[in-house]
Amino acid sequence: MNITFEKAGEILQVGLEGKISSVNAAQVEADLLAQIAKGESDLLVDMGRLDYISSAGLRVVLLVAKKLKQSGGVLVLFGMQSQIREVFDISGFLSILTVTDTREQALTHFSHLG
């Protein structure tokens, strides 16, 4: 699992690559929560290179989304491969999270920053 962080204006762009499973979910959670603890409140997550996500990984996404919502922040996921999108769909997460196909579509959800 590889996570990258890149700041673009007020938005923290997060790149996820590989697999999120019970083996590494706690580390992914710690890395993302550390960014929020440093004051990041708007996360744009590129899931285009994420090949697998387990229920432990879904829990991390939900926890991060709740944490950001509490602080008035925004979490937008984009670029999911079909198998990842299916997991989010089956789990009901597509109806409670903001998920777009492209980065450009995702950026429109940060209009409160402009």
TrEMBL record:
Regions annotated as coiled coil: none
Residue span, STAS domain: 1-110
Record Pfam families: STAS
Signal peptide boundaries: none
GO molecular function annotations of the record: anti-sigma factor antagonist activity
PANTHER family: ANTI-SIGMA FACTOR ANTAGONIST, ANTI-SIGMA FACTOR ANTAGONIST TM_1081-RELATED-RELATED
Entries under NCBIfam families matching the protein: ant_ant_sig (TIGR00377)
Similarity annotation: Belongs to the anti-sigma-factor antagonist family.
This protein's name: Anti-sigma factor antagonist
